[in-house]
Amino acid sequence: MRGLFHKVPLYWGLAILLFMLLFPLVNDSRSMLILLTQIFIFAIFAMSFDILLGYTGIVSFGHCMFFGIGAYSTAIIFNHLEATLLHFMIGLAIGIILSALVSYIIGLLSLRLKSHFYAMLTLAVSQLFLVLAEKWRGLTHGGDGFTFSVPDVFKDRTSFYYITLISVAVVFILLKLFTESSTGKVLKAISQNEYRAEALGYKSLHYKLIASVTAGVAASFSGALYAVSLRFINTNVFSIEVTLDALLMTMIGGLGTLAGAIAGAGIIEFLRHYLSELAMTYPIFERWTIILGFLYIVVLLGFPSGLAGFIKQLTLRSGRKEKQEKKLENVA
Amino acid sequence: MEVFINLLVNGVSTGLLIFLLAAGLTLIFGLMSVLNFAHGGLFVWGAFSGAWIFKETNSFLLAVVGAIVIGMALGWVLERFLIRPVYGNHVRQLLITLGGMLVLSESIKIFWGPNPIRVNLPGWLEGSYQFDGIIIIKYRVFVIVVGLLLYLALWLLLSRTQIGLMIRAGVMDKEMVQALGINVKGLFTFVFLLGAALAALGGALLAPYSGVVFAEMGMQYAILAFIVVIIGGMGSLQGSALASLIVGVAGAFMAYYIPDLSLALNMLLLAMVLLVKPTGLMGEKGSAV
Amino acid sequence: MSLLKLDNLETYLGQYHILQGVSMSVEEGSITVLFGRNGAGKTTTLRSIMGFNPSTTGSVHYHNQRISGISTHLISRKGIGYVPENQGIFSALTVEETLNLAKAKSTGESEEKMEWMLELFPDLKKFWRKKSGLLSGGQKQMLAIARAYINGDGLLLIDEPSKGLSPIMVEKLMESILKMKEKTTILLVEQNFLMASEIGDYFYIMDDGKIVHEGLMQVLKEDKETCQKYLGIA
């Protein structure tokens, strides 16, 4: 039974990957390619958040800062240096190092405390980055932002599509390996019962720091891709809405599944796309953030285990389902 | 000297406004371990509805009362429909109150549009006092007086009344309070509404003070309040009052001398507290871990 | 007719099946002692009665009224006082404030009960305005018992009152509890067999979430085999 469950998603994953690889050959609609590229980028971002919230049970309300750090690092490098792949790598590396550092320091300060502290501190620090980006106009051009050019291979929509698609696949595999490694198992144990994990001799601060840094690094990578995809950057990358995107995508897709985060990214980006189209005819949809906010609350209250949990429940027989629910209730 | 006194007055009045926000946060947290990320949303609703009622009726008193009523109504909805269903689950509580914050501050834009709104001072609070050539703005003195009176009222409520006794006991041991036949959920609703009223009042008082209100203000002040609550010690009213004054006064001086660093200063204060004494200046021992 | 009746209680804590069908009854005006080793489920039994850890199946009846499934504060208002294992002292409240809090939702003549408690535990009178957190361990236990009795004198649930106290203090406390039997009914959880067997009328022994033995305390004192098997007493 368990083996079957393990294999089915693998086949599905390969089928979806194959479909996505072939997709540009059958449909070369430019706007569709752009939309899918956005989905891939946000899928990486959402997966990074899932490592924190879904696998380790850490609530971060400032995840946008790593996204923004990655985005600004790349954008600023391209703004000052030539648009070559090497410079992209340098920008990416700077973003990753900075993110690792920042997540490590925040984690060190607050992860040994109750979960509220990490949530508050990440929120406050991310707002600090927002203010910093607005004030340091010499580097960031403030809220107006700036445009920059990128290497040709990134300019071409189809090749960039493939780059982001492969990135999603690689990040997914890496994070999957991470979660299934011995470290990942300890993280899962911590999320279920921190005291018991500590009692078994695992220093939970150490493991939470690993999760926090991993998530920061992956988010920074997605931010870099995001900046490249727009060839423009402004302080919006540090806004709370970006953090909310990550929350929404992982919650809707289902926490602690990675695949759910990808599905959530797809759902939210499609929804946003159509809502902003609707806004052209019905101005009420201009405030789609509030619609996403309501959706987020409804998902949290009504479907705490997200789409993945919903599907899992459908596939389980009713007898087992009840048991599962009881278990969930007890854990909660 | 004049600069010094003016900055002090500014700092204390801002600090007391932050305290109105932080008082609710810290009591709600102390009693139920709920950290209400939507608290800033109530604050910004207080600011907008107060400004709006003042513009429509030209009565400042009515504006303040109206803001409090609206804040409490929204607080009731929040408590009843968002927080109560996820009692006892800290992660979901955190997540859902952030959603509440987003909806509250976005809905501001639906009612009053996305642009900032200008707010005037009520006539009887315009102008300033002069002492030996030092000019002090009247409204700031008013804010300080109101803030101190509210602190006194809260202190009396907590230390002299039976419901205050229940709240203080509940902060220490919620289960034991229930075992004494006291309905902690009802108590929590009371505290939540009290916190909502204080937050909305804070917003309504801030609006004429800053002269302009905007939707993002809720988050900005909420972050200040969070910093204050951590520095003061979660669950401690005195701690929050002290930390509010520290953050307010330090902020006023920084904003004057090194404006770009004022937010960084708060973060520095926060980092220091987290490193040295995570329970805050006056927090109960061990409540942070 | 028994005052308190537990019928086949089953309680889970998280995924652990702690109470696996506990049935017992407490007679009015008696002291009933619940024995058992650590982790047997004694504390959970009291917590299930109080509604902190509600049972998934089974029922609790008090005065022939079902009280399982209702909220803790409503259970308390039926007249049940509770002394938790850690005493549950409100450390920043004074003795006066603590006992006033106990009167807030008290059943019956709270003034009279207060007077009797202060007579029984004169230390509380002495440290009337002292913060409870500054009291000695024994005084804290007295305060916890007085608070429970003033709040609800129909039935007292007392969880390991002797824990961490000196032998002299334990003896004093047991004497007081014995005196309280005149006016109330007590369900006592204890590890200290010697003390509890002096004051108890009836006993239950729990092991692995089940009641494995019950009977008159007089009989247990003679039953060396049971004592050795479950209570580790030679």
Give the key terms.
heterotrimer; A: 332 residues; mainly alpha; two-stranded antiparallel sheet; 16 helices; disordered C terminus; C: 234 residues; alpha/beta; six-stranded mixed sheet; four-stranded antiparallel sheet; 39% helix; globular
Topology summary:
The complex is a heterotrimer of chains A (332), B (289) and C (234).
Chain A: H1 2-26, H2 30-56, H3 64-80, H4 85-110, H5 115-135, H6 137-140, E1 146-147, H7 152-155, H8 157-180, H9 182-192, H10 194-199, H11 204-230, E2 232-233, H12 240-253, H13 259-281, H14 288-302, H15 306-315, H16 318-331
Antiparallel strand pairs in A: 1-2
Chain B: H1 2-32, H2 39-57, H3 60-83, H4 90-112, E1 117-118, E2 128-131, E3 134-137, H5 138-160, H6 162-172, H7 174-179, H8 184-210, E4 212-213, H9 217-232, H10 237-257, H11 262-276
Antiparallel strand pairs in B: 1-4, 2-3
Chain C: E1 4-13, E2 16-26, E3 31-36, H1 42-50, E4 57-62, E5 65-66, H2 72-77, E6 80-83, H3 95-104, H4 110-120, H5 122-126, H6 137-151, E7 155-159, H7 167-180, E8 185-189, H8 193-199, E9 202-207, E10 210-216, H9 217-222, H10 224-231
Parallel strand pairs in C: 3-8, 3-9, 6-7, 7-8
Antiparallel strand pairs in C: 1-2, 1-4, 4-5, 9-10
Tell me briefly what this model is.
The complex is a heterotrimer of chains A (332), B (289) and C (234). With 289 residues, chain B is mainly α.
Describe what this molecule looks like in 3D.
The complex is a heterotrimer of chains A (332), B (289) and C (234). Chain A contains 16 helices and 2 strands. Chain A has helices at residues 2-26, 30-56, 64-80, 85-110, 115-135, 137-140, 152-155, 157-180, 182-192, 194-199, 204-230, 240-253, 259-281, 288-302, 306-315, 318-331; strands at 146-147, 232-233. Residues 1-5 and 317-332 of chain A have low confidence and may be disordered. Chain B has helices spanning 2-32, 39-57, 60-83, 90-112, 138-160, 162-172, 174-179, 184-210, 217-232, 237-257, 262-276; strands at residues 117-118, 128-131, 134-137, 212-213. In chain B, a hairpin with a 2-residue loop joins strand 2 (128-131) and strand 3. The longest helix of chain B has 31 residues, at 2-32. In chain C, the strands form 2 sheets. A 6-stranded mixed β-sheet of chain C has the order 6-7-8-3-9-10, sandwiched between helices. In chain C, strands 2-1-4-5 form a 4-stranded antiparallel β-sheet, covered by helices on one side. In chain C, strand 1 and strand 2 form a beta hairpin. In chain C, helix 3 (95-104) packs parallel to helix 6 (137-151). Chain A binds chain B through residues 53, 57, 59, 61, 109-110, 112-117, 119-121, 123-125, 127-128, 131, 135, 240, 244, 247, 251, 287, 289-290, 293-294, 296-297, 300-301, 304, 332, and chain B through 29, 35, 37, 82, 85-86, 88-92, 94-96, 98-100, 102-103, 106-107, 109-110, 219-220, 223, 226-227, 230, 234, 260, 263-264, 266-267, 270-271, 274-275, 278, 288-289.
